[in-house]
Amino acid sequence: MAKYDYDLIIIGGGAAGFVSAKVARGFGKTVAMIEKGKLGGECTNYGCIPSKSLIRAARAAHEMKNLDKLGLKLDAPLSFNTDNVMSHVRSIVQKVYNTHLPESFKSLGIDVIFGSPQFLDNHRIKIGEKILSADKFIVSTGSSPSIPPVDGINEAPYLTNNTIFSLDKLPASLIVMGGGPIGIELSSAFNRLNVEVTVVEMLDRILIKEDKELSDKLAERLKSEGLKIMTSAKAVRVSKSNGKIRLSVEEKEGAIKEIDAEGILVATGRKPNTEGLALEKAEVKYNNKGIEVNDRLQTSANNIYACGDVVGHYQFSHIAEYHGVIACSNAFLPIKKRVDYRNVIWCTFTDPELAHAGLTEDEAREAYGNNIKILHYDYSKFDRARTDMEEFGMSKIILDNSGKVLGVHILGTHASEIIHEVQLAKHFNIPFGKIWEAIHIYPSYSDVIRQPSKYYYAERLRNNPFIKLINIFLS
Could you tell me the pTM of the whole model? Predict the structure, then answer.
């Protein structure tokens, strides 16, 4: 008779939970996955999928408004009805959700249980009146919107990314608190869909984790499209006024400015979903930043692992999947893996996109001083961008003195796809100057990487002492 009901119980049915459950089954383990809401987690239901669907609709609207740039002209005046945009977004969410129904996991031998679990000790949990036991646990409960302690905010009908996609119609105007990835992605999309949007950011610029040069360029581009962005602006009070939401903002000089809109979206950060788990009964340490784990994703209870947003760190679905493989492997295999964040990569899916891998210029200068090389290449310099009328943007590659990639940042069309070529070079320690040697398709957006690689190689060649000596001899 088995000592426990399962070899592994996973708490949380999002990206990390999905991956770790399938890996465990691949190891031949008995597995149960517990979810208190809907399978798919934040990404499918409230994050990546609905936001990218909204951004795609906004891009279509923007392209229609700018047909003249392609030599096209509508015979009749252009007007948009956005009444069905949010229902379209929800239909895409449903389509993606249908690819990971509970039945699909059951067919793999993974039990799916819905409910809110609480630990009784490090081997047992309680769901309602039912008690289940497991040899190992993985906690992957994700994160949820963090609401700042702004006066009056709990009396106002504020929106978050968890609720905004439930709207039937778009508001005529919207205040967005927070200039991070969620706030800026949604702000830029709503702005293109004829919503009057004002972003309020407490710091001195939006997207503070991005390379400053490129985030500043993106901010100017978004402003040119009509998006209002207030930086160094602190939200001090939310109230209702004449049927609208009023946000009182303290500007850098101390002056108070009032902003009125039909709605307000709070996008000021995330908090780990640890409430209600009774982690202390399993002797799992945690704080307001998340569950404490070592570099093997093991908690203070040696048979319990945690991964994804709930451990803090980088809150992305692809990092959750990366965590899931490591946590499950370490739970059952003798050779333990360590998490390695040196090659973390992400993208802010504005239009144009802003993709990020490795160090920013400021971070590189702090770590290496002036012993770095920075390469820029504008989208306006290569033919595919010209043919598509997508000439705004640039790549920025940061190298050490040996030509190894320290960081890469791309602002422009298809940035999230293009960046992976440099990410592979960075991951496998390939000098940037060798990328151009591989045959690339013409015309393609890969020129934003290939061309600076070629120019960097040529520069290194010119500065090679042996080549200089030959040139002197030949001359």
Answer: 0.94
